[in-house]
Protein 1
Amino acid sequence: MDQGQALASFGALSQETRLQIVRMLVVAGPAGMAAGTIAEKLEVSPSNISFHLKELDRAGLISQQREARSIIYSANYHALGELVRFLMEDCCAGHPEICAPAAAVAACCAPSAKG
Amino acid sequence: MDQGQALASFGALSQETRLQIVRMLVVAGPAGMAAGTIAEKLEVSPSNISFHLKELDRAGLISQQREARSIIYSANYHALGELVRFLMEDCCAGHPEICAPAAAVAACCAPSAKG
DNA sequence: TCCATAATTCAACAATCCTTGAAATATTGA
DNA sequence: TCAATATTTCAAGGATTGTTGAATTATGGA
């Protein structure tokens, strides 16, 4: 991920509705969620949620696929992982002080950890 | 770090000049850099750099201290670390797929790693 | 084909953000 | 105090972003 990509990602995540969409889709997993369901849960109008979904898609943080009448959105795990990596390595130059809390989280969730 | 704090941080990092300032200050370390020096290196006008430094300060990502005629800015490592943690744990729900690349970076720079 | 459902697109407007240059503030030294 | 340096503040304008509701597109079933 280059700096331009990171800028777009940060911009996409800097809006409350969009950050909530991403958090929701991450929890939803690969099954994803229909646009209408997202709008309902977040209590946002269909046209507004559509606008924000398009922004997230443009930034590459989510992807979509039609399923019957619905359009299912899901989080792009790879892009989110790359963003974390950019923030730690490229932006924060791998400084231990910055990476320490991240390392703690990584230790809990990494497949090679004790779990 | 709560969601509001994260939103402010993402907003602050979503602008090219500001992202460059942060990257520069992280590399500069605790010694920091004077506003004028930052402006010079990034080829941005003094008033413009001042605007962006204020935005980063408001988001808590950098801090300042006067030294003679200069005002020295430095990266807030703790805030950056918390942002990485938020992105991995709160936003990305600790998903291994997302954390994997981060774990790799963490392994290289963490003080408790093999180094 | 016709209707209902699901979502997007569009235009208009409001709100926010960025840039610019001039003026103001703070510090230092003569 | 005066001048020079370093930076910030301010106001104006332009650019971008977010919101709204109406119109449009796409799908599936009677």
Note: The beta strands of chain B are 33-34, 62-67, 70-75.
Protein 2
Amino acid sequence: MKSSPHRPLILKRRKLSFPHSDAASALAGDEPSGQNVGSPKQEEAKPKEHGTNKTEPGNREVPVGGIRIIDHPTLSDAQVVAIPANTDVQSIIDALTAKGKESGSNGPSKFILISSTQFTVFQVLLPKLHCGPLSLLKTLNSVCLRTSLKPSFGNLGLQNENLRVCIYLGSAETTSSVLDNSLTNIQWLGNMSSSGLNPCSVKKETEKENQTPKQKAIKVSKVSSSSTTSWQESFSERPPYSYMAMIQFAINSTEKKRMMLKDIYTWIEDHFPYFKHVAKPGWKNSIRHNLSLHDMFVRETSANGKISFWTIHPEANRYLTLDQVFKVSTFHAEKEIEAPFIDTGLRPLFSFLGRKMKPLLPRVNSYLVPIHFPLSQSVILQPSSKMPLPASQGASETMQSSKPVCIAPKVRLYISGFFLPISCCQIYFTVSHSVFLLQVLPSSEEPTLLPAPIPIKEEACDGELSPFTSQQSIKQDACWISKESFAAALHIKEESHNFHSNTWAPHFLPTRPFTALKSPSRSKLDTLVIKRQERQEMGRSRRKQHLALPSSEEPVLLQPTSRSESCTVGNDPPFATDTHPLESTSQFSCSQGEVIPFKSAIKEMFCKLPISSIPSKAPITTPAPFLATTDPWRLAPFVKEPSDVLCSPVRTPPTSLISLQGNLDILGLGSTPLRPSLCDSPQLPLLNAETNDMVSGPLTSSPATSKQSSPELQASALPENHSFLEGLVLDTMNDSLSKILLDVSFPGLEDDNLGTDLSWSQLIPELK
DNA sequence: GGAGTTGTTTATACGT
DNA sequence: ACGTATAAACAACTCC
């Protein structure tokens, strides 16, 4: 690298990690004035006192037994109940009862209970607190089975439940990091709107971006309990999310999926107090850096050019929001290998025999990232019937009921019987760079509890055969099965050759799911490059990055005839396909006179080379059309939510070349996902309802004049507000599962129409 | 015009 | 090697 005389020596990278409680407590008594100058990380890691329950003036939520109830960051009708470890149920009840009395009838309708124990990070949604303490107890009981909580109401009859439980099951933490991680799962909640946290302002607004925070005056108040310590930590530690992820969260938190820079700052500060109170101001520089660096972030400028918005490229956007993302503990699969489901009342919902999970995001081991899923159960799928498909899709991809399950080789999936109110379940996992989707579909019958444990067992193929190494292999690796047949189906052992059969056909995909994934339009690539050159020649202002055009100038994305709008959202322009490569331009392809300035040479290189960032550990001979179309962050065929076919709204990499990176991209939290896209096919489905309005929409025009993507349609298309959809994403490297994301849906949880009369006793044998 | 903000780019550090 | 974080330079731009 050439050295620039203007550039100073780069100091050693600082870590902004916040010292743990012990360290923080230790620091409390030490005046930092005499700190080592050469250790900026310690200097800036000073927390300020907050989270203690004694001196915070704004702590209106007086903790009961260490339990804190604070506002949910995004859900106005929900509050988050942070439960320290070793809290007994009664304490929780007391706290909730007190809160309920305080709030009265106008109180929150949902309580999200969060705790972290050795096995479980769970979240309990209590949509109807007024359903009574009995229900609450039962619910709590159900989640306490395998936690440090001490259920003491194990034999209560369960009936008239309106409660639903979202249980986010992590994995065993085997080390003392359990304590460290205690409640860090709520770290992402930031300070929410909690006035009780009231962290003192460590950094002043006047601080310059690259100045060291004035932390000399910071003192850390001693916390008297581990619970408050954990709480404090949760608001002091650096979020486990990358800047890119946080930017996505921020942008996706807005209705129009766009945000000004300063608002991004504000959002991050609001949701991650670390950046507001602990981190150096330079983090804003990093935010800007990320915005500029990653192609997925697209800058829009209003027509008058005075306002800049940052958006997410629709093809790269997974519409993840913060409240969808939950951290789970490290998963030690090997322990599960040895003794799966031995003593479990509530064992990990899914255990995977495999190697140690790889981290999904920086500085954490794994994350649970709920992925949206249609809430409606309007589609009733019979176990043995073909999957209903949009009429236009034809039946060519319908699922063969005789082989309802496709299990990847070398994957043994164990599912314990805790699918309580779960009527739909999505399991995404990858094996050998391939993504599989296993779905449990709702049935017409009342939800039933799956037998537990149910092993999904699929032994490895001897030949290390990738499921998609054959020519017609990959399509979409998805399986939809009914719940009734789930258990039985899971026992089906697919032979390796089945991976090459049509069984793997993506029955929920359009008829030509992969014709739409053909190699990128050469002409488009050329165009992009040319326009890049044009821009360079024109010497255009740097600030005019690649600005999105108003929708009036936005090229229309076309939909192949085979991909009916029933698989898209509303009447919005469907996704572009290879059949219209030139038309399938996003804002990256601009109208005449507009350029497509790539931000960096790197990106340009990516554009020229249809490469994949996939670590090609195992050379996979993928059919050429798929090789060239690896857009890991691409959206799977999207389905109009309430009707038609249940399609995964997750951008499911449709090719076999899905790697760890690809899966990260699925989550929208990985690396710059747009790079391959710019080179590859642009024909993949887009959430055009969003695309047109948010990215391409005229920034200055009134909403009325913008594209007809109605809010309703967008709402249906964008499930980020329906945070009850989760999924399980497993990623494997080297033929082993290496990380896991759990994504289990709870349809109806939000709209309260799911089997509310379902007796828990029917579902939870342990509670009978 | 100066200060501050925004956006781009380069360079380095660090972890995997 | 790659992705990410951090730091910085610098230009364009906005605001007072």
Note: Residues 1-4, 6-7, 9-15, 261-262, 288-289, 291-293, 299, 308, 358-359, 362-363, 542-543, 545, 599-600 of chain A lie near DNA strand B (CB under 10 Å from a C1').
